[in-house]
Amino acid sequence: MTDRSDASSVSISPASAPRACYAGEAVVREFFEMIEAECAGYCILGGYETFPMHITSDIDFMVHKADHPKLLSLVKSFSKRNGLRLIQILDHEITARAFVLVRLEAREAIYLWLDSCSDYRCDGQKRLEAASILAHRRLHPRGFWIPAPADEFDYYLVKKVGKGEFSARHGTHLSRLYAEDPHGCRDALGKRWPPASMAKICDAAATDDWAGVTASITILRKEMLDSLEKADAASWLMEFTRKSRRVLAPVGCWITFLGPDGSGKSSLIEALSEMAEPAFRNVHSYHLRPGWLLGGKNSARRPVTDPHALPSRSLLASLAKLAVFWCDYVGGYWLRVRPRMVHSTLVIFDRYFHDLLVDSKRYRYSAPRWLTRLAGRFLPVPDLVFILDAPPEVLQARKQEVSLAECTRQRDAYKSLAEDLQSRTRTVVIDTSLPLDECVRQVAGEIFRYLEARTARRYGIGA
After folding, report:
1. Which of the four CATH numbers 3.30.420.10, 3.90.1150.10, 3.40.50.300, 1.10.1200.10 does domain 251-432 have?
2. Which of 113, 77, 68 is nearest to 95 (CA)?
3. Any idea where the domains of the chain sit in the sequence?
4. Which among 2, 110, 179, 281 has the fewest CB atoms less than 10 Å away?
């Protein structure tokens, strides 16, 4: 049994943290067997070289237009049968929806990211029709359905040119598909590009030399878009509604860590960022404030060895600091934090405004406490706040920046703060005298529960 009062037994090491991985072959096969049985058909759109034995990212697949609305209930029932949490749904086009599922185990978080579509659209404009691709699908030797070579060539090229991104790796994949069915690929190209551009792409595909295509990507994108049928009014309205929903109800998550020096904020944030990253498109961290006003110190922050060394500022200077902080948090939320959440980012704050209430000496702050508390009432609050706690002796063993008495005072103050914040947002106290893997697991579990409940509420499904 671990003696938690022994400082040597509670050191925090990111190397011991749980890891993130993707679901295994059995789970993936079961999902697509269900889709084949319940829908008119499917096909995996790419990245199937090691599928389904080894999955390292999302799984892109296509179903018929009539089947796409069924996927929400199918994915939900599948997640329940397999002990998975449906934590995210991303409507990234009007006919494309990604589902993020996870199961949290003792040493790992197991993810399954299912990225579905019917007709392939972008900004409401139809670029590929699902019925045509599914009509010519073929069975892979490993037992799952994939597009015909010319259809996959068409889909992959349209996708990459549409995004304006093209690399040698993309070109090599296209050349392999072209070699399987050059006539079919040329027919697909002829529907989208004029003869000169079509010839350039064919030459590139035949020789696997895509330098000319890369240099002409802007022109090729314009020619492709000009060849497509314009989106009708109904599609534009659905696209506007989708984008509005993403802005009004972001799919990102904002969490904040508070706690005294030595409570393990940095180690926990580092480990959590790696474990939770597959649940989001990105992870972004801030120290204390967004840094929107007067710049920030997030990128080159020096370690603080004596946070109470300098005297407090005057009342006037402290009020000015309070005003700057308040404006930075409000403006930074709308201009930095919120946009990141709209783009499915896990936003992490190491410390936040409320540190002024707990450790005013650190910030050389001497304004009245009631004024600080009042200002905090009018600030945006995170989705989740984690108060990191440990016995004072453990905190002192990790860091000696303040005295044992100050450690004890701060610990009590943070616990009181947790009670105050609970009325405004979900606030959880984490005992960081536990091993790092257990702390990360507790925090990740709270995040996943929050995301699952939010998803269920937004889409009207049971958690």
Report:
1. 3.40.50.300
2. 68
3. 251-432
4. 2
CA atoms within 13 A on the CB side of 9: 8
Say if strands 384-389 and 19-22 run parallel, antiparallel, or are unpaired.
Answer: unpaired
Residue 5 CA to residue 211 CA, distance in Å, equals: 63
Element spanning 152, H or E: helix 149-163
In contact, 246 and 91? CB cutoff 8 Å: yes
DSSP letter at 179 equals H
The DSSP H or E segment spanning 261 is none
Task: Give the per-residue pLDDT at 125.
Answer: 77
Q: How many CB atoms lie within 10 A of CB 18?
A: 22
Cα(first)–Cα(last) distance of the chain, in Å? 36
Beta bridge partner(s), residue 44: 61
Q: Are 346 and 277 contacting, i.e. CB atoms less than 8 angstroms apart? A: yes
- What does the block give as tokens for 43? 């096909």
Q: Report if pTM > 0.85.
A: yes
Q: What is the mean pLDDT of residues 6-35?
A: 73
For the ranges 190-204, 231-245, 362-376, 378-392, the lowest mean pLDDT is seen at: 231-245
Q: DSSP class of residue 426? A: E
In the structure encoding, which two tokens stand for residue 233, read together? 């009014």
